[in-house]
Amino acid sequence: MEAQVFSSFEQIILDQIGLGAGTREGGIKDQAGEPDNRGKLVVDATVAEQSIRYPTDLGLLDEARRHYLAVAKKRKLSSTERRRGVREQLQYLRRNLTHISVLLDEVGSTPFPLPAKHQRQYWIIQHVYSQQEGMYRSRSRRCADRIVSISQPHVRPIVRGKLSKPVEFGSKLSVSVVEGIALVDHISWDAFNESGDLPEQIESYKRRTGVYPDTVLADGIYGTRENRRYMKDRGIRFGGKPPGRPVKETEENQEQLRQQRRQRKLDALERIPIEGKFGQGKNGYRLNYIRARLRDTSEAWINSIFLVMNLLVLVRELYEDLFNFTKNSSYLLFQDFLDRICRVLGNILNVAKEDLVSN
User: Fold this and answer.
1) CA 269: distance to chain centroid?
2) Exposed/middle/buried for 27, CB within 10 Å: 0-12, 13-18, 19+?
């Protein structure tokens, strides 16, 4: 299923808990007749790692050639040993590719003798060889669009700068949280600056809810001048430090600065739920261990994890509504609770069925 299908699922859940554009009440309007900004939008980015072996130059070349080296059994390699091992692997792989090329020349103009799967792997291995040979000759450890897995060539290394995991291998996600509902706004297999997604995330919030958010809570990386100007034009407050040098504290502005610091502290606390969503996805639903191999199925796997977490939020919201009333009508309320759950699941299944029929 594509991203548009999961967006429909998210809208169904937002409508059910009263956050959708078609379910909001009229509310207070400004002089131009437009509804005031409401709600808080929390945004952040993370990486959904794929289930691949940690890639090294030796391991990747060995995977392409399917042969183990004695040097790979060493626990720690010096730079000289690593370079010698890469050179030997490149020589072996070049020999094997040359043999395959000679055999293909003998076949002539007949149809390609390999099935589509093996033909694709053959092309990928040639590309890996070209990349590794280029890095070996230039004595570099980097190249553009570097392949780190033969079986999943779309996976790229993404530098995160964390102490435990400086580099992660998977897709990078831009996620926004609205009243506990986590919405996947952008999935990319290449590294990107998440601050560029903020305007589109704000516009998506308006499409879903009918109004702009009152406040955007995000890391400092989102606070670029362009994003601040964009939010200021729409009357949206950014929960972060103001740009430029800190204002000198005087007796006149002491109370104002104290209130601003207090507000930034509250904004930082309200950003915690999005980190909790990432932790819930990675620890509870293996968002950091995506076992699908194809690009499309991996993206569907990721979106399905967020769908399940959002359904749990919906169930909790309906469950709390159920017990906010008196006990005398508990049976009818419980029946209504089940009806609403079945209605949401039925809408989701209908959207999924339409997608399957159209494809």
Assistant:
1) 22
2) exposed
Q: What is the dihedral of CA 202, 208, 211, 217, to 10 degrees?
A: -40
Which pLDDT score, from 0 to 100, does residue 121 have? 87
Q: What is the mean pLDDT of residues 99-127?
A: 83
Mean pLDDT of 227-249: 87
pTM for this structure? 0.76
- pLDDT in the model for residue 7: 77
Sign of torsion, CA 204 208 214 215?
negative
d(CA 210, CA 29) in angstroms, rounded, equals 12
Handedness of CA 309, 299, 4, 44 (dihedral sign): positive
Instruction: Output DSSP code: residue 243.
Output: S
Distance CA 315, CA 55 (A): 41
Q: With 70 as the cut, is the pLDDT of residue 359 above it? A: no
Q: In the numeric block, which tokens belong to residue 98?
A: 């040359």
